[in-house]
Amino acid sequence: MGLISFRKPDILSEMTWRVLGIYLFVSFGSFNFGFDLAWWSSCLGLQQFADDYGVSPGPGQANVIPAAWQSAGTGTPNAGMAIGCIVGGYCNAYIGRKMTIIVLAVVSIVGVVLQCAVPSYWAVIAGRTINGISMGMEANVIPTYSAELAPAAIRGSLVNFYQWWQIVGNIVSAGCIYGTSKTLSGHWQYKPVMIAQAGVPLILLCGVWFMPESPRWLLMKNRRSDAQTALASIRKGKSSPSEVYLELLVIESALEEQRSLAASTTYFDCFRGANLRRTLIAVLVQVMQQIQGNSFMNNYLVVFLQRIGIQNGLQIYLAQNATQLGGVTLSFYFTDKIGRRPLLIVSSFFMAVLMWTVAGLGAYTEIRGSSKAQGCVGAILIYQAIAAGCWGSCTWITTSEAAAAVVREKTIMTATFVSFCMVLLVTYINPFVQDPGYGDLGARVGFVYGGCSLLALAWAFFFLPELKGRSLEELDEMFARRIPTRKFGDYVSPTGTDDTKAQNIAAESEQVTK
Asked: Per-residue confidence at 435, pLDDT binned at 50, 70, 90?
């Protein structure tokens, strides 16, 4: 099988206004994720924020946020996200997808209130950490919920809304900070954006009641009638009642088969048998995204640009968010047209080249006020478009697809927990590696991240199978049969297509009834 396998995309034929509306809302929680990252990264480069929350390095010198404070302020909320992954995993399994969204929305509001109410740097960090718990829960429930509701042919496109809303949140937040910093004075240069964070959880609290629960979760809780009602609601306008019934039978049959293999599951089951391979895929795709510089670009780009002599860092940060949005928007089409695997392989190569370009221009040439600064910025913008459109989107799609049905919550919780631990590690270490007085690598830190992109390329080429266009139940079958990585694209289920499989199951059910 070739690296790239084109299939006719069924995006328009499978999409309905109802499905689109459900996914726009379900994935909206990730807007808060992007919003938080962008306002914090933008404020680190804002002098007014340093004046209000920082310290003076010496008599007559302007306040700064010390490197240790930056590490704590950027890294500690990631610890909250890691905790949120654990909390979200349990909530996801025991109270369902909808109730988990309600809980995370309440937690987010508490965090935002603390950030805004107490005029202290460490109170802001405490509030961001609480909000981070909410975002960790989001990272667990939203991809799971999205993957379980989506038709197989367009699952990649629909799960991609999770990443798309993150980038929209980035743009809105960075744009607001840029606007308020130019038009307002004092703490109002950044305070409106801090307050606005409460908007997302309030919208979720109001709208989640109208969303269907995951049919797969309902079936796992032996609520078959509710599952059929939920599935009929999701497929309304696209599938007939008999087609909904047949799809429900396929899901139910797959769940029963897996239950027979594991009557009661624990986290150890994620690392047993065929599940080990699936868990490693979910975990490592998250790790590979972070070690290529994702968290570095999200949290320290403005500060990095200032360190190498580019002063309009906030404008560039806003521009790179726009390029990210362009990349993610294109991935709605390409994730299901080309596939996840080739996008990750090819993008890693270009990300390595671009990161090394930034490092070389920033570290070994006089960049201040020169055309080389424009080249450095251009490389960053192209890098961000590629990273967001390929790794940003495909990471969450792959994580949600790789998990087996009976341990889906546990696998995704494990993967997202490890991911946020990696983010925590990078955000704590980066200032000490990059800043003067410590490691003083400056722009040369890009050589490290570029090398990690080559590692990610090798991993994706040798170990990541192509998962596009398969139902979650078909993926369960393929991993159980231990299909080799490069054979996934050519595999034909011995029981036939989903439609044939459903009809066979229905016929067997009728025979049993008779």
From this structure: low
Question: Which CB contacts under 8 angstroms, 24+ apart, belong to 310-313?
Answer: 310/367, 310/368, 310/373, 310/376, 310/377, 313/45
**Cross-strand partners of 55:** 64
Give the end-to-end CA distance of the chain in Å, rounded to a whole number: 45
Architecture of domain 11-513: Up-down Bundle (1.20)
**CA–CA dist 408, 279 (Å, integer):** 10
Domain ranges of the chain: 11-513
Cα–Cα distance between 514 and 502 in angstroms, integer?
Answer: 18
Residues 6+ apart with CB under 8 A from 207: 25
Q: Sign of the CA dihedral 316, 342, 283, 213?
A: positive
As a whole number of angstroms, the distance between CA 453 and CA 440 comes to: 22
Query: Residue 511's pLDDT band (boundaries 50, 70, 90)?
Result: very low
User: Residue 188 has what DSSP assignment?
Assistant: G
Neighbours of 219 (CB within 10 A): 22
Rounded CA-CA distance 24/298 in Å is 23
Instruction: Give yes or no for a contact between 55 and 106, defined as CB atoms under 8 angstroms apart.
Output: no
Cβ-defined contacts of 435-441 (< 8 Å, 24+): 435/67, 435/307, 436/307, 437/67, 438/67
pTM for the whole structure: 0.79
Residue 45 confidence (pLDDT) above 60 = yes
Query: Over pLDDT 90: what percentage of the chain?
Result: 29
pLDDT tens column, 240-271: 888 888 888 888 887 777 666 555 677 888 89
The pLDDT score that the predictor gives to residue 510 is 45
